[in-house]
Design brief:
Blueprint: E1 3-7, E2 10-13, E3 18-25, E4 34-39, E5 45-51, E6 57-59, E7 67-72, E8 77-82, E9 91-101, E10 106-111, E11 115-120
Parallel strand pairs: 2-11
Antiparallel strand pairs: 1-3, 3-8, 4-5, 4-9, 5-6, 7-8, 9-10, 9-11
Amino acid sequence: QVQLVESGGGSVQAGGSLKLSCAASGYICSSREMGWYRRAPGKERELVSIISSDGTTSYSDSVKGRITASHDKAKNTLYLQMNSLQTEDTAVYYCTADSWTARVRRCITYWGQGTQVTVSS
């Protein structure tokens, strides 16, 4: 199984930038997608970006054009470059990836612990 550890969160003023990292230790199922999600205070968890197994990315309408997700296979690390941040982007951000789990004999989704992003006006 895999452990996912996010970092790079923090406080920034509106219009600023942050780059989140998600370091994976362990085997990632390369045929499965990876993702970034966020949960804002008092709101449901929201999908931010998906990185497909072929490397293509997709984004929610709320972040499209401002956020770029990527995966460095050599470093086994996911990234989320966030530009032109808005107060509405304030949330805890989580990365996800699938890993082979012997107990169930298949790839299942794992989540990182989350990293807080706070955008002030």
